[in-house]
Amino acid sequence: MKTQRLAVWLLAGAAILLFDFFIVKIPKSIESPFLSPGAVNFARSWRFRVVASPEGRMTPQERRGKQIYLKGSSPSGGAIQAIIGDSSSEVPAVTLPCAGCHGTDGRGRPEGGVIPSDITWKQLAKPYGITHASGRKHPAYTDRSMARAITDGVDPAGNPLAVAMPRYSISRKDLDDLIAYLKRLGEDQDPGLTESSLRLGTILPAKGPLAEIGQAMKAVMTAYFDEINAHGGIYHRKIELRVAEPGDTAAATRENARRLIEKEEVFALVGALIAGADQEMASLIQGEEVPLVGPFTLFPEGSFLLNRYLFYVFSGLKEQGRALADFAARKLRIQAPRAALVFPETKIPLDLVEAIEEQCRKSGWSPLERIPYPPGRLESAPLVERLSQGGTNAVFFLGSWEEGKAWMKEAATRKWTPHVFLPGSLVGKGIFDLPLSFQEKIYLAYPTLPSDQTPAGVMEYRALLEKHRLSTRHLAAQISAYCAAKILVEGLKLAGKELSREKLVVTLEGLYELDTGLSPRITYGPNRRIGALGAHIVAIDLQKREFIPAGEWIGLD
Ligand code: HEC
Question: pLDDT tens for residues 387-404?
Answer without folding.
Answer: 999 999 999 999 999 999
